[in-house]
Write the structure tokens for this entry.
Amino acid sequence: MIWEAIDDAQAGATLSDGATTIELVFQFDARGLIASARSDERYRQVGEKQVATPWRGRFWNYAPRGRMRIPLDGGVAWLFPAGPRPYWRGHIQRIEYEYK
């Protein structure tokens, strides 16, 4: 993974696995926690095809769990020209980690 600062509140991340590379832009809140992640080309199924579509995930309600601070709430949406179309929202009620 390669990180690159964009400005004081955003950073780009490039992840590669074999021939597949994705780029995400992370936005951080005033406390330095991830507020959102965005990709201009996240693939979604449209009929029989995979179509690259802008996508954003938002995260909030951070709380300590174990040795980490995690967002307990989040949601993701496809970003269409007519506006965002949310397709998942979640709330973590319980989480367990196995540290290695």
The chain has one domain: 2-91. The chain has no helices and seven strands.
